[in-house]
Queue: 2 jobs
Job 1
Amino acid sequence: MLKDAFTFEKLLTAHKKCRLSKQHKKETISFEINLSQNLTEMSKKLLNKTYKIGKYKQFYVYEPKKRNIEALSYKDRVVLMAFCMNVLEPKLEKKLVPDNVACRKNKGTLFGLDRLKLFLRKFYNLNKNNLGYFLKCDIKKYFQNISQEILREQLAKVLDEEDLWFVDILLQSRNAETGVGLPIGNQTSQWFALFYLNGLDHFIKEKLRIKYYVRYMDDMILLHKDKEYLDYCKNEIKNYCSEKLYLELNAKTQIGKLSNGIDFLGFRTILNENGKIIRLLRSQAKLRLRRKIKHLYIFKTQNLVDDKYVDVRINAYNAHLCHSNAINLLFKYIKRFKK
């Protein structure tokens, strides 16, 4: 129930989670000066259904590609955090298939890569070769093209009327005139995007009978020994997206050989003829890593950052690469730029 999601205690918990790594920002400090009053007023307005979502602040990020990010004020982010933690996550999580791996507890990038590795191993053990194929599907401008009407119809099957009241004011806060698109930057948008393709997940696994399938947001990987069947699946997925979700597959959708490797989540995963699975860093990811480490040591020599900051960043890169065959690249770049 909505009244349980927006109590003073639940909003306080959401605030503590929102402030992680942002406690020194001006917006967070201003909110905390009158913390008790702010939370009390927010809770009262939410329970009385008089709360209004504020304006979005827009900015761009450029890695791994250029994206327009739309961010709400800190108090709105606290409200969205509480809604996700107490409504969306408990109610939507149990509806999602295990192979939908993005932005969920105990899942994520590494889980998705390991899931793909497991499927490749199962494929090899079953067929005793690597002569199979993969279908990689990608949705064209996924967040920008999600139909708010279809999304609400989907959510109405899971959420109650009070929950839907907040969903409505959230959807109406952005692109209400077109009814299309979700703001990249809202935590609720992540959960909505996870759930929007849930019917497609079930269609692929239950109707198309694809055993080896993994999805990270709008990136989907299907494995099969028959290239013609994957081509059939591609057309079925295309029709499903167009007719039921008003979405299109983009030009990156392709069918390829397992032996040539699968580009997924920043790595290229290859199944060789001996059954060994190799995980290499993609070329673009190599360039980004090299550039980041170069800038890191330039900042260090100019005393813009200290040793502790450098160690934290290097440890983060190490944690990302240690599960792949590309770990030596990190130490190679470090050695080069230290000189």
Job 2
Amino acid sequence: MPTILGQNQYGKAENRVVKIVRDGDTHHIKDLNVSVALSGDMDDVHYSGSNANVLPTDTTKNTVFAFAKEHGIESAEQFGIHLARHFVSSQEPIKVARIRIEEYSWERIASSDGNSKFIGADQVNHSFARKGQELRTTQVTFDGENWEIISGLKDLTVMNSTNSEFWGYVKDKYTTLKEAYDRVLCTDVSAAWRYNWTSDDQRMPNWEKSYEQAKKHMLQAFVETYSLSLQQTLYQMGSRVINSRSEIDEIRFSLPNNHHFLVDLEPFGLKNDNEVYFAADRPYGLIEATVLRDGVEPKIPVDLTNL
């Protein structure tokens, strides 16, 4: 049976690059995991094995590290833009470059008074601990004319210990869940948002500020929403980001409901007044949805929150 080649790409995945900027005694760290995927005129290498149009994946790896030196890493988005533009503009067979980046955050180790017996005053500017709050993500795609920048985060665990209910739901003969009028709401936030910056003719967003503000607004919405369902909280988080950040047109969430069940303490003669819970890691409810600016068509792939 005749076959034809479908969509394809190649590149070097998970290039872990750490860039240290030494500003005198004060150091700054950018820690990225960069994956490069290139596509274009690659039929011959699949059909006949001819590598005439193939830029080696080892070269893409080397480019990542060289660009960390030559261009620096101002932000994950800006670094991805430099790489994508380079691959498309320097290699005629390459028509589209997709750069996916995960960023690991670090914070300085310092004592409150600067005189810790463990940490000297001359160490606090170059000693760091990995921040464990979330993993920052971005995907940069360039076809020689148009850009698509989708950034986000994952594994940001948040909890409200009250101000959450769940009741009035459909019940059938298999329903055993009791209605809750004061429950724990806990989730691991994975989110991806799409910028409306698509051309070099437009003013480029401040990537670092935009990320911090998007995260701030979704967390504020999580805190301030009296939740009757995780779906309601998700929509409020997305709406807050869209309404507050004009450079973002679309945001997609994947929120597992990390269930906390009240433990029955009556067999021990104890009353559990919403104090002791069993935290179940599986199975879990999974709530996913996209929030869009009115009039905008959705473009974020469904699985992109799992970058």
